[in-house]
Amino acid sequence: MSLSTAQKKLFSRDLYMAGYSAAQAAALLNISDALIADYWAEWVQAGVFYKDRIIVADRGLTLDAEHGAGAIGTAFAPKTFRWIENGDIITEIWVDITGLACKGDAQGDVIGLAAGGAAYIGRYVVADYGIVYKIEMTCLEAPGEGTATYEPDIDLMADDEADLAYDSAADDTVIAAARDWAAGEQAVTLTPKLTANDYLYLGEGDTGAATGVYDAGQFLFRFFGHPALNA
Fold first, then answer.
1. What is the C-alpha to C-alpha distance for residues 148 and 155, in angstroms, rounded to an integer?
2. What are the pLDDT digits (tens) for 115-144?
3. Beta strand pairing status for 154-159 and 79-85?
4. Residue 181 CB contacts under 8 Å (≥ 6 apart), including other chains
5. N or C: which end of the chain has fewer CB within 10 A?
6. How far apart, in whole angstroms, are the C-alpha atoms of residue 108 and residue 158?
């Protein structure tokens, strides 16, 4: 019995996770190199690697934009992933702050493009995130700016307004880092202060630094949620 195109695609994922090359999979499934290249591009996004081995599968593909234009720096736009793991809904947001700016004059002020634009990095929609009970904020690359006038203490903020831009004041602190971030550091909250449909922002965690544009800095946010239980 011949496999349908959809079945071949699913089978290609199994081959990918088992370590087969694209050429080997194309030959086994009798599909074109171009088609297997498309499949492989999807599976690359669906796994996390350690020493060339997949250690987490089913991360899913990058979701459609869940961020504002003012949060897009010069490296890459925020990326959002969502998947189910042990019954929990896991939402990840990857952010690179290169090209974004801070004002340095008030705690909680939004970090974003100096030119303006809504700078939210995500939105807490309960139907998507579940009831969030834990949030991790991990620094993958320390914030940097050539003249050291930037704000290296960065918090996760929330607000019910969708149009907060650079230097606007966000209402609620979700994670107060209380540190100048270094790569590998993490802050965790088990009591997230989130309200349904809040928008998520990066905010200044301290005051006193002059206006600066970041030339480095990457963060990974992971939200742990659970769907509401049905009777």
1. 18
2. 999 999 999 999 889 999 999 999 999 898
3. unpaired
4. 139, 142, 143, 152, 153, 154, 217, 219
5. C
6. 9
State CA 72 to chain mean position distance: 12
pLDDT value at residue 51: 43
CA-to-CA distance for 87 and 71, rounded, in angstroms? 31
Provide the CA 66 distance to its chain's centre, in angstroms.
Answer: 10
Report the amino acid identity of residue 163. D
**Measured between alpha carbons, how far is 95 from 80 in angstroms, rounded to an integer?**
9
For the entire predicted model, the pTM comes to: 0.74
Q: How far is Cα 141 from Cα 71, in angstroms, rounded to an integer?
A: 17
Q: Which residues are within 8 A (CB) of 37 and not within 5 positions of it... i.e. 6 or more apart?
A: 22
**Bridge partners for 156 per DSSP:** 175, 202
- The number of angstroms, rounded, from the C-alpha of 53 to the middle of its chain's C-alpha atoms is 22
Please tell me the distance from the alpha carbon of residue 95 to that of residue 76, in angstroms, as a whole number: 8
Instruction: Work out the angle at residue 6's Cα, subtended by the Cα atoms of residues 81 and 24, and round it to the nearest 5 degrees.
Output: 90
Looking up tokens 């006193």, which residue turns up? 208
Q: Where are the beta strands (DSSP E) in the chain?
A: 48-50, 53-56, 79-85, 88-96, 101-102, 122-123, 131-144, 154-159, 172-175, 186-189, 199-204, 212-213, 216-226
List pLDDT tens digits, range 200-230: 999 998 776 667 889 999 999 999 998 877 6
Q: CA 42 to CA 150: how far, in whole Å?
A: 37
